Amino acid sequence: MAYDISPTPLNSHYTIKVASYNIHKAIGNDQRRDPERILTVLDEIDADCIALQEADHRFGNRRAVLPFEAIKAHGYTYIPLSLRSCSLGWHGNALLVRDSAACLGYERLRLPRLEPRGAIISDIRIAGNPWRFIGAHLDLSGLYRRRQVAAIINSLKQTPQDLPTVVMGDFNQWRKRFGCLRLLPDDFRALPTGASFPANRPIGTLDRIIIGPGIKLLACGVHNTPVAQKASDHLPIWATLSLSASSVL
Prior knowledge:
Layout: E1 15-22, H1 35-45, E2 49-53, H2 68-73, E3 76-78, E4 94-98, E5 102-110, E6 118-126, E7 129-137, H3 142-157, E8 165-170, E9 189-190, E10 207-211, E11 215-222, H4 226-231, E12 237-243
Parallel strand pairs: 1-2, 7-8
Antiparallel strand pairs: 1-12, 2-4, 3-4, 5-6, 6-7, 8-10, 9-10, 11-12
Protein name: Endonuclease/exonuclease/phosphatase
Keywords: Endonuclease, Exonuclease, Hydrolase, Nuclease
Domain Endonuclease/exonuclease/phosphatase: 19-234
C-alpha cells in the first residue's frame, strides 16, 4: 500500500456517516437487475464512505454493476481497487467516497477461502481527518470466516501507521457475538445496527460495521425504505461516527 499521510490536526467535532451494502449485483427481490434503484438507495443514505459487496458481475469480464458515469453523477468517487478497467472492486468489494474525500492509499487482500474471496483496505482523508476503511465479504463457511478475520487483523497489524479504523461488510454470520467476531481485538466492537437480511423481512444480522479504538458512535441502524426493500436482497446498514477526544490529542 502506498501512503501519503501528512501531519494534520485531527478534528473530534466533525462527524462522518459510513454505510455497508451488499447490492447483490443490482438484482432486486423482483429478480430484475436495476442499477438505478441501487443509486437511489445510495442517495437516500447520503454517506461519506460506502462499502459495497457484489458490486461486479461474477462471470465473464466481471464488469461493474453500477455505471461509472452514474456513480460520478451521484456525487461519488470509487477507490481504484480493481485490476480490470471494467470492474468496480476486488472480488466484488468496492469503496465509494464523496468527491470531496481524498484517497491516501489502498491495498487488496487475498483471503483464505473455500470460494474466491478478498478484502480491501483504503486510507481516506475526509474533512482533514484520515480514516482507515476495510471492506469485506466473508465466506459461507464458519471455519473460513474465522481464518479470513484473522488474516484481516494480521494485515492491520502490519500497516505502517495506526489510524481510526472501520471494518464493514457482509460477514455471512447469523449469530451476533460468536464465530469469527470472537477473533476481533478487545478494543474493536461490532455496532448494533440491526437485522438486514433478507431485505423484505429482515431477521439476520449478516451485515456488520465494526469500529476500532478512538472512534465514538453517535448513531447507527438499518436503512429500511420501500426502494431499499426492493433493490437488493440485503438492506444497507449505516453509522454516524466521530473521533473521540483522546484520539486527537
